[in-house]
């Protein structure tokens, strides 16, 4: 329920602070007084975008605040999900700076306009004279059925299942497309992988093979060099080993008379032993060197194979070939895994589709069940509003199971006639403005009983009606206000007289500016206001008497 609306520096409004009643609130005033400006200010705290920067004072920011009693509307979960502080009286504030930048707050916490709009939908429903266009939309028609059928929990379950089915189906489609492309390349990838796998690649093999190739190709030269080493160390007439042996003997003789050179003797002896060992090792290596033409051919063929594979796959070494081989293996494994995933997703989609169809069927049955009651009640309310021959026909049809929608499987068609003997037609084609307003009021009054809207605002929906019809419309609004807050902007005294609180919007002229203001009328002021609505600025006694009768008391 909207307890209070505060508007500062907006359009023709300098400062307004309005406290509303929990029942039927009436706003009246001459055309152009500023009623639409007040509604524009209210729309800003309901998440509408700022259309202009027309401020009362162009050097100050605009601030609009709404104080809402939300204690009975089960909004704690919403506040927790949005990380907002929950307060029984929640304050929504909108600020628009002089440069046009806008900020929104809920209980002093900044929020986005999207969050504000979602919250606003739970707080207020605005029904203007243009809202009759909603009657032609399937979304509104389905909302009517679902509200009366109390389908909100079922709609939420269906919506969740629909999104899950849609997301899973999209994933399946994308995976199938990718798998189809991969399958086209699979044979080629398999060939490449088999070729690399058969090559038995080793990351160190190329370096070792190239070294062996060098050894085999230069075997004669290597053998000749090694033999030269052996000749120099041992076989030469004056070999290194012979000379070292002779030198060692001479040093040992000297040591007998000079013990201090023992270390030199030891070092020379070590060198002699090392050279002999080196000679033996060279000999063993030399014995292992031989001309092996077959092995050389095998090494050259293996290297040619490795070089060819590297050139084919545009890499520089065997390690890169091995990495590419593993990449191919993973692709082939992924293809196999994708097939398993596709099979699982197909099963999931089938199961989700079955669950979705079951929920859609439940929605269809619940909607069908309430159609007779809706038609009967709407026709009854319209008869109360002097439309005795009106008839609303509601047709519900199911689409193909493969064409499920986010609202279910149903299409709905509201057809209406206000005249006797005329077949119902789409509402926008056969109803006048006044008839549409009454039809919308009847539907809204039905929805309001089941959807528990905190506040409903009727913005000049009395267009095209007057007299006894206006009285009936007023009675329906009054009944609505018994269980919810209702606000009505009206030019009809019959409707204005039903209000529990009556506010008058007016303009004040000064030497410098024109400003819009609003006051809550006292009982005496209400009589005068209604009389002026009946007969003009200077009402006579009859108009005053009629106004008093409308208010249910005698004029004083």
From TrEMBL:
Keyword DNA damage listed: yes
Coiled-coil boundaries: 201-229, 318-369
Record's GO cellular component terms: bacterial nucleoid
InterPro entries: DNA_recomb/repair_RecN, P-loop_NTPase, RecF/RecN/SMC_N
Single biological process term from Gene Ontology: DNA recombination
Keyword annotations: ATP-binding, Coiled coil, DNA damage, DNA repair, Nucleotide-binding
GO terms of molecular function: ATP binding
Domain RecF/RecN/SMC N-terminal span(s) in chain numbering: 2-511
Annotated CDD domains: ABC_RecN (cd03241)
Highest rank taxon of the organism: Bacteria
Function comment: May be involved in recombinational repair of damaged DNA.
Family statement drawn from the similarity comment of this UniProt entry: Belongs to the RecN family.
Entries under PANTHER family matching the protein: DNA REPAIR PROTEIN RECN
Protein name: DNA repair protein RecN
């Amino acid at each position: 329920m909207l307890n209070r609306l505060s508007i500062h520096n907006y359009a023709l409004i300098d400062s307004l602070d309005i406290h509303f009643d929990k029942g039927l609130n009436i706003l009246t005033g001459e055309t152009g007084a500023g009623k639409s400006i007040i509604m524009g200010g209210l729309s800003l705290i309901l998440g509408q975008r700022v259309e202009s920067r027309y401020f009362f004072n162009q050097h100050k920011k605009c601030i609009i605040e709404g104080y809402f009693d939300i204690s009975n509307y089960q909004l704690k979960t919403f506040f927790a999900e949005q990380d907002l502080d929950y307060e029984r009286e929640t304050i929504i504030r909108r600020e628009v700076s002089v440069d046009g930048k806008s900020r929104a707050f809920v209980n002093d916490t900044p929020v986005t306009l999207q969050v504000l709009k979602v919250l606003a939908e739970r707080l207020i429903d605005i029904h203007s004279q243009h809202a009759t266009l909603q009657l032609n939309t399937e979304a509104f028609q389905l909302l009517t059925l679902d509200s009366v059928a109390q389908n909100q929990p079922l709609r939420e379950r269906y919506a969740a299942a629909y999104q899950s089915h849609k997301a899973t189906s999209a994933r399946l489609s994308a995976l199938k497309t990718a798998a189809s492309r991969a399958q086209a390349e699979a044979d080629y990838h398999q060939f490449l992988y088999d070729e690399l796998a058969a090559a038995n690649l080793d990351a160190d093999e190329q370096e070792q093979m190239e070294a062996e190739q060098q050894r085999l190709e230069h075997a004669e030269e290597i053998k000749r060099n090694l033999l030269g080493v052996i000749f120099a160390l041992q076989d030469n007439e004056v070999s290194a080993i012979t000379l070292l042996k002779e030198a060692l003997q001479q040093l040992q003789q000297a040591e007998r008379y000079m013990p201090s050179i023992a270390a030199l003797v030891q070092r020379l002896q070590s060198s002699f032993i090392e050279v002999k060992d080196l000679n033996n090792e060279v000999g063993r290596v030399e014995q292992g060197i031989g001309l092996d033409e077959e092995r050389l051919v095998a090494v050259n063929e293996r290297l040619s194979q490795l070089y060819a594979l590297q050139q084919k796959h545009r890499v520089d070494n065997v390690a890169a070939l091995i990495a590419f081989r593993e990449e191919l293996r993973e692709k082939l494994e992924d293809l196999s895994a994708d097939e398993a995933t596709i099979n699982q997703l197909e099963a999931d989609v089938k199961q989700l589709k079955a669950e979705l169809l079951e929920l859609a069927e439940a929605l269809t049955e619940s909607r069908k069940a309430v159609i007779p009651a809706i038609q009967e009640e709407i026709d009854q309310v319209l008869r109360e509003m002097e439309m005795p021959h009106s008839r609303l026909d509601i047709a519900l049809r199911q689409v193909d199971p493969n064409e499920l929608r986010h609202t279910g499987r149903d299409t709905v068609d509201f057809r209406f006639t206000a005249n006797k003997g005329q077949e119902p037609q789409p509402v926008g084609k056969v109803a006048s403005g006044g008839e549409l307003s009454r039809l919308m009021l009847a539907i809204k009054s039905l929805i309001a009983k089941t959807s528990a809207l905190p506040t409903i605002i009727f913005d000049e929906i009395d267009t095209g009606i007057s007299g006894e019809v206006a009285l009936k419309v007023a009675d329906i609004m009054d009944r609505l206000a018994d269980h919810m807050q209702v606000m009505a902007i009206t030019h009809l005294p019959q409707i204005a007289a039903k209000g529990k609180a009556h506010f008058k919007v007016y303009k004040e002229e000064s030497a410098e500016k024109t400003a819009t203001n609003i006051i809550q009328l006292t009982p005496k002021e209400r009589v005068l206001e209604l009389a002026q609505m009946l007969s003009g600025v200077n009402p006579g006694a009859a108009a005053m008497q009629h106004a008093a009768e409308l208010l249910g008391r005698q004029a004083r």
